[in-house]
Amino acid sequence: MALVLAPVPPVSDWLAELDALAKRSPAFFVGRPVILEISGAALDREGLRALVAELSDRSVTVMGIEGAGPGLLGDGLPPPLAGGRPVEEVAAPEEAPEARVSVSQAPAPARSLILDAPVRSGQTVLHLDGDITVMGSVASGAEVIAGGSLHVYGALRGRAIAGAAGNPEARITCRKFEPELIAIDGLYRTADDLGPVQRGLPAQVRLEGDAIKVAALE
């Protein structure tokens, strides 16, 4: 599963938005390979090299670059990639084979997002303006990121991030608790950290001070 970042000029402002996202949700880039889509960034080779260095300083690993003009790559830069889907196709979680996120201005979505279909492996659903409700399951290798709370009516086997817009009151609830990672307001725990607590059972996750608490869902 790769995350696609699509910088837009001025790149300094785009990096500031990326920093704000990482501050709200430090787990967002944990273990995530990144594809850099630069067709709209208006960069020359030196500018691209500087951008890759800035991302590296933020522990963002760029595995490949899309949208580069002829002769732009080389000299130690990540390799070119081809055949991906356009960034604008983020909104189709049923079909997108790889997650794509553009850190740029976009129209404000509805306060709550309801997904009638399950979230499949390799898909990322990002909704920072409210809650997300998944009527099915979240598969292993999938990721759901909500600015508010996250409700999963099936099994939660992927990565669940709630309160990503800076909401410590957010919660995660599911009918079957088997996550790879959970996070609320920037605090996160992996499956290894969680141990057997509520494994395979209905669960709710919330913050108590600076600690993530997992309890039975009654």
TrEMBL record:
Residues annotated as domain Septum formation inhibitor MinC C-terminal: 115-214
SUPFAM superfamilies: Cell-division inhibitor MinC, C-terminal domain
Pfam families: MinC_C
UniProt record, GO biological process: cell morphogenesis; division septum assembly; regulation of cell septum assembly
InterPro entries: CAP/MinC_C (IPR016098), MinC (IPR013033), MinC_C_sf (IPR036145), Septum_form_inhib_MinC_C (IPR005526)
UniProt KW Ubl conjugation keyword: no
Statement: the UniProt record of this protein carries the keyword Cell division: yes
Keyword annotations: Cell cycle, Cell division, Septation
Record-stated family: Belongs to the MinC family.
Subunit structure, as described in the record: Interacts with MinD and FtsZ.
Function, as annotated: Cell division inhibitor that blocks the formation of polar Z ring septums. Rapidly oscillates between the poles of the cell to destabilize FtsZ filaments that have formed before they mature into polar Z rings. Prevents FtsZ polymerization.
Name of the protein in question: Probable septum site-determining protein MinC
Gene, per the UniProt record: minC
